[in-house]
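hey can u run this one w/ calcium ion bound, need the structure tokens asap thx
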Amino acid sequence: MKLHCRDLAPGGHLASLHWMEQNNVLAGMIRNSQNNDVPTWIGLSDIHKEGTFLWNDGSASDFMFWAEDEPSHKNPKEKCVHAFLNNSLYWNDASCNLKLTFLCSYKLVRPSCH
Ligand SMILES: [Ca+2]
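ok here u go:
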């Protein structure tokens, strides 16, 4: 997923969410594109250290929106995080091998006029 975001545009990465409004915007984007609340990968994981969730763009882990009893760490493979657990905005840790919708983020570069 992360690599696919990079392939789509230089500097692309799975989306990071830092406040509730971003979580709501994500919900609107997914609902509009998928016509449903489908589980969607975001850029959070604990692949580097079990239990320490970090955003893959290096930004601060200052906002979490876990579902009840999540992150469950049900097995060692639950290292990636998706939103829309059971049709809710809440997040869940799950196996990174699951094929889910994913949300990429890119920086827009404004063309300069010289
Ligand atoms: Ca879980």
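The CA atoms of residues 11 and 107 lie 7 Å apart. anyway lmk if its weird
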